[in-house]
């Protein structure tokens, strides 16, 4: 390739110019005017003040001054890749979703992995939940499966989301710490929120410091519905299983990697895909009906609970392959807008109160973040199937409807019409009851699955959890928070509480927290241990 040299030259009048040489295409302004000099502003004389008539300079600086958009309020740091989803077999029996009708169907996909708490410039190896957001460009509209690398969540009700996130973000007076680690406000909130105990076990486990995005699982978390052509519904939980296996790093490795290469996870994904080593995940479904749900001793609408794979093995239904990096990080990875509400016909929501709240939040936040109701027209967000409606105007409208009438019904035969047979129909679930803010009794058990998770870990993994808790709580400045957490740990597992208490130098453990319902001893689930899986 020819280098376009910059040279200092003397012009015909003897004056200095810094000017490009070589055969590059001509640069233009945003309006298309060819640019003669992109090195020097227009001035009065050679040493005088700048002229405001220098439209070329003004346009360049104006655009630069407005390059930044708000980072995501959560999951700000992320990294994406393109790929495809391949359907193994028809699932027409369970769903009329177009993506699941034909064996071998290939659907384009875009995936964004992320950390939750840190800012856009934070380090990849933070102890944190990882986002695992998948956009599937199906032939009947985009389906976004906006998941995480852990199958449960901190809270049961969406109204608590601002609280849990405020507790984990930098403290407002001092503006640190950046990450979840060693955070008084985070542990304060958690210790006052027993429903978070199961998730906290996951976050203190090896799952929270994955070796790379390629070696982690993904989960839709909530119970969703599949709905077939006869309007019959089957509950479903979505799981992504990495064909690479699962791997994590140790905390002291994570600390060193963060220092040596804060972009470690980005570099790993970039390197693997550029080298043709395409990472792959299998989509597996846990499918169940109302009777099965009624027979469980927890509520499938409670996002702090998982359905153990031993009770209900997930069925493989397809594979996701990532084989191409974006051409432009901002245009694709930053501007992509995932929304839980993006579901095609055949996939529907359950009444999980966290999912219901999320369905409001994503559209709302993305108007703020992307600045225009037309963000769906951006190439990364636009469906890859035909789409047609009467939405018009707004900032940056690039795709207005044409013709005389942009409403329906109209007498001119213009434009698209609804299609009751093909279109999205909400599953007609029976919903009755008084308005209420009460939590259901079926959401009251906060410790049994936390205990199950701890017991499912190998001895090595349990030691990592003890070390993580001792490190985190040891750096809490407020002793009462530490003691409150030890009380919860006693309700999860006595040996865990004793080990953490010893490491913290607490001579007398506080009384165990009082559970709202008795803690049950569930059989440990081998599927929850990374070491037993790899
Ligand atoms: C991103 C809200 C729970 C996964 C976001 C964003 C918001 C948000 C506002 C930023 C979106 C953007 O600017 O594009 C909420 C609320 C929740 C909730 C209100 C609970 C009530 C969850 C849960 C999961 C999850 C349970 C996992 C199952 C994600 C992911 C992203 C994200 C993966 C990043 C998407 C991307 O890569 O662009 N969430 N969230 N969120 N959320 Fe949630």
From TrEMBL:
Cofactor(s) the protein requires to work: heme
Enzyme class of the recorded protein, top EC level: oxidoreductase
Catalysed reaction, written as an equation: 2 H2O2 = O2 + 2 H2O
Residue ranges occupied by any Catalase core domain in the UniProt entry: 28-416
GO molecular function terms noted in the UniProt entry: catalase activity
Highest taxon of source: Bacteria
Family: Belongs to the catalase family. HPII subfamily.
Protein name as it appears in the record: Catalase
Organism this protein belongs to: Tabrizicola soli
Part of the whole protein covered: 18 to 551 of 706
């Amino acid at each position: 390739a020819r280098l376009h040299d910059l040279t200092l030259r003397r012009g015909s009048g003897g004056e200095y110019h810094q000017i490009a040489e070589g055969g590059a295409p001509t640069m233009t302004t945003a309006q298309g005017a060819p640019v003669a000099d992109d090195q020097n502003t227009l001035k009065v004389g050679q040493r005088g003040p700048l002229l405001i008539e220098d439209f070329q300079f003004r346009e360049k600086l104006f655009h630069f001054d407005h390059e930044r958009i708000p980072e995501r309020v959560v999951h700000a740091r992320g990294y994406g890749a393109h790929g495809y989803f391949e359907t193994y077999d028809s699932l027409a029996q369970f769903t009329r979703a177009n993506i699941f009708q034909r064996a071998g169907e290939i659907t384009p996909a875009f995936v964004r992995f992320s950390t939750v708490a840190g800012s856009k410039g934070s380090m990849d190896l933070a102890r944190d939940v990882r986002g695992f957001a998948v956009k599937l460009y199906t032939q009947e509209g985009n389906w976004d499966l906006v998941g995480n690398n852990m199958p449960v969540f901190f809270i049961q009700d969406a109204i608590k989301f601002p609280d849990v996130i405020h507790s984990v973000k930098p403290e407002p007076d001092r503006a640190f710490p950046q990450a979840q680690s060693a955070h008084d406000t985070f542990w304060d909130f958690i210790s006052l929120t027993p429903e978070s105990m199961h998730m906290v076990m996951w976050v203190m486990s090896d799952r929270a410091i994955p070796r790379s995005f390629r070696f982690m699982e993904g989960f839709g978390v909530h119970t969703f519905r599949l709905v077939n052509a006869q309007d019959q519904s089957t509950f479903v939980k979505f799981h992504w299983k990495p064909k690479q296996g699962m791997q994590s790093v140790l905390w002291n490795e994570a600390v060193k990697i963060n220092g040596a290469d804060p972009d470690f996870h980005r570099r790993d994904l970039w390197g693997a895909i550029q080298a043709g080593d395409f990472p792959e995940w299998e989509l597996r479904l846990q499918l169940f009906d109302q009777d099965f749900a009624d027979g469980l001793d927890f509520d499938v609408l409670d996002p702090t609970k998982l359905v153990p794979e031993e009770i209900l093995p997930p069925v493989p239904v397809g594979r996701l392959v990532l084989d191409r990096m974006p051409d432009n990080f901002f245009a694709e990875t930053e501007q992509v807008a995932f929304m839980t509400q993006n579901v095609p016909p055949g996939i529907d929501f359950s009444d999980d109160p966290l999912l219901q709240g999320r369905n409001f939040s994503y559209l709302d936040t993305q108007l703020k973040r992307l600045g225009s109701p037309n963000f769906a027209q951006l190439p990364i967000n636009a469906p890859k199937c035909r789409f047609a409606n009467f939405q018009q105007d707004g900032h940056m409208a690039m795709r207005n409807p044409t013709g005389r009438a942009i409403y329906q019904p109209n007498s001119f035969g213009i434009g698209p019409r609804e299609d009751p047979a093909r279109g999205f129909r909400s599953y007609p679930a029976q919903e009755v009851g008084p308005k209420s803010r009460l939590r259901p009794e079926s959401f009251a058990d906060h410790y049994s699955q936390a205990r199950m998770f701890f017991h499912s870990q190998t001895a090595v993994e349990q030691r990592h959890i003890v070390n993580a808790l001792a490190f985190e709580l040891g750096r809490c400045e407020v002793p009462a928070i530490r003691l409150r957490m030890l009380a919860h740990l006693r309700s999860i597992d006595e040996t865990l509480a004793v080990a953490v208490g010893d490491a913290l130098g607490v001579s007398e453990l506080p009384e165990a927290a009082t559970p709202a319902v008795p803690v049950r001893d569930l059989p440990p689930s081998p599927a929850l241990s990374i070491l037993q899986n790899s």
